[in-house]
Amino acid sequence: MNIKDILLRIGYARNKARLSARELSLKMGMSSQYVAKIESGNITLSVEKLLEILKICQFSEEKFFSENPYEYDSQQELFNLINNLSNEKKRHLIEFLKK
User: Fold this and answer.
1) How many CB atoms lie within 10 A of CB 43?
2) Could you give the CA distance from residue 31 to residue 48 in angstroms, rounded to a whole number?
3) Are residues 16 and 53 in the same domain?
4) Are residues 60 and 45 in the same domain?
5) Which of 75, 83, 84, 99 has the fewest CB atoms within 10 Å around its CB?
6) In tens digits, what is the pLDDT along the chain, a chain of 99 residues?
7) Which CA distances in Å does 67 have to 2, 3, 26, 54?
8) Cα–Cα distance between 53 and 34 in angstroms, integer?
9) What's the pLDDT at 1?
């Protein structure tokens, strides 16, 4: 993951929280342009500030740093559904998927 990916993911997390860059900046106690400057790469972001952004946006660190945060929720739902199946149903599902 490079810095461009991180900046895009910050914007994604903010949008999922339905916050404008200005709103998020003010919730952080920063100037109204702070998050916009971060997302455009004009301010170096500390780990502390990234974690603060994720907390405000209620966006888990696991999801943020996952291989594909855009599909994370559906992947987790699928994982949980499969995980809760009996062993017999898991075997049937595996056989079905192999066809």
Assistant:
1) 15
2) 17
3) yes
4) yes
5) 99
6) 889 999 999 999 999 999 999 999 999 999 999 999 999 999 888 999 999 999 999 999 999 999 898 888 889 899 999 999 999 999 999 989 898
7) 12, 15, 30, 17
8) 11
9) 83
Residue in this structure with the two tokens 């066809």, named with its chain if needed: 99
Question: Amino acid identity of 67?
Answer: E
Helix (H) or strand (E) holding 3: helix 3-16
Is the same domain home to 72 and 61? no
Same domain for 36 and 76, yes or no, is no
Residues 33 and 78 in one domain: no
Instruction: Say whether both 59 and 78 belong to one domain.
Output: no
Q: How many residues does the chain have?
A: 99
Global confidence as pTM: 0.76
Task: Say how many domains are in the chain.
Answer: 2
Phi-psi region of 41 (alpha: psi -120 to 50; beta: other; left: phi over 0): left
Tokens representing residue 48 in the block: 């502390």
59 and 77, same domain (yes or no): no
